[in-house]
Design a protein that fits this description.
The chain has 346 residues and is mainly alpha-helical. It has 2 domains: 274 residues, Fic-like fold; 59 residues, Orthogonal Bundle (Arc Repressor Mutant, subunit A). Strand 1 and strand 2 form a beta hairpin. Helix 11 packs antiparallel against helix 12. The longest helix is centred in the C-terminal third of the chain and has 24 residues.
Length: 346
């Protein structure tokens, strides 16, 4: 069975890209601590939006979807799930809330991972929720001709429980010793988790929940305010490409997880940059927030661009405020229909 040894990470010579990412994230973490003290109300507005985006995005990556109206009702627990997709969305909601509210009390062990998986499938009638796989699974892809093929074969079912125990033990040992930056250990753990593929279903969603959990436990709480899952969903092909590059030679212990590490670090720093942008944009009113977002744009921009910067403001409110800014001569409107854009006049 494949073994795990994260001691090798401290001896590896990392290139400038990785070193730069680490430096930027450490700096951003320090800034976030200041914002937590200075702008608590603004931050609280971002939390619920991030939860909605994380739940929607992590499920949509796997093809699990519902309407925006139904999603918001499910997130606020104002309705019951109507179908299989909504049951899985409700389960992810509950698991994500568990991580958000209790991460300090959730150590990384196989038992806790199984419990999170059980929560994720608690609204379905699946019998495999909270249990490791009992049949061999495969990671498949589709070629240019539309034919499916096996991209990677994970560990066999009988190998999975001991591998998960060793994986968690090695992660905890490495974090406990403090000789390797957690920002390097976390992506490698997630990469190994995905290569083991311990569950019949839900491996991708569990990997994203565990990423959030481990970042929180190491003091990197940006995912509470900016959805990391939404970042991944926006360019999931890059995510899968990085994972595929890193999987080669995994069973023999000859894999190089650098591509996946770079992808994850890039995603984290992008989230921190969005966090800083949004916290500086949020104003005392929705109009101030939209106005601040407009002032941050250069050249042409669309309503969608403003919505991304103002997740706490509804689409209809953004549209109303853009009309007000046009009437006031602050911005001008061009194009029409789906090609509508705006530019600043001042």
């Amino acid at each position: 069975m494949r073994g795990f040894n994260y001691n090798t990470l401290k001896d590896k010579k990392w290139d400038n890209e990785v070193v730069n990412y680490l430096s930027l994230i450490h700096e951003a973490k320090g800034k976030q601590s200041l914002y937590l003290k200075q702008k608590p109300d603004e931050l609280n507005r971002l939390i619920e939006i991030a939860k909605i985006q994380s739940t929607e995005s992590s499920n949509s990556i796997e093809g699990i979807r519902t309407t925006e109206t139904r999603l918001r009702k499910l997130m606020s627990e104002k309705t019951l799930p109507r179908n299989r997709d909504e049951k899985e969305i409700a389960g992810y909601r509950d698991a994500l809330n568990t991580v958000h509210e209790n991460f300090e009390y959730i150590p990384l062990t196989p038992n806790y991972i199984l419990q999170l998986h059980k929560i994720m499938f608690s609204h379905t009638d699946s019998s495999f929720g909270g249990a490791f796989k009992n049949v061999q699974n495969f990671i498949s892809a589709t070629n240019a001709d539309g034919k499916a093929y096996t991209l990677f074969t994970p560990l066999a079912p009988y190998e999975t429980p001991p591998a998960m125990q060793e994986l968690c033990d090695e992660y905890n040992r490495s974090i406990g010793e403090g000789k390797v930056d957690p920002l390097l250990v976390i992506p490698v753990f997630i990469h190994d988790f995905l290569c083991i593929h311990p569950f019949i279903d839900g491996n991708g969603r569990m990997s994203r929940l565990l990423t959030t959990l481990l970042l929180y436990r190491s003091g990197y709480e940006v995912g509470k305010y900016i959805s990391l899952e939404a970042k991944i969903a926006k360019d999931k092909s890059a995510y899968y490409d990085a994972l595929e590059l890193s999987q080669s030679g995994w069973h023999e212990g000859k894999d190089d997880p650098t591509a996946f590490i770079k992808y994850m670090l890039g995603t984290i720093i992008a989230a921190y940059r969005d966090f800083e942008d949004r916290i500086n944009i949020v104003g005392t009113s929705s109009f101030d927030t939209v106005s601040n977002a407009v002032q941050s744009k250069i050249g042409k921009f669309t309503k969608r661009d403003i919505l991304e910067l103002c997740p706490t403001v509804s689409a209809s409110t953004v549209e109303r405020h853009l009309k007000k800014l046009c009437a006031g001569g602050i911005i001008s409107k061009g194009g029409g229909g789906r090609s509508t854009f705006y530019v600043r006049n001042l």
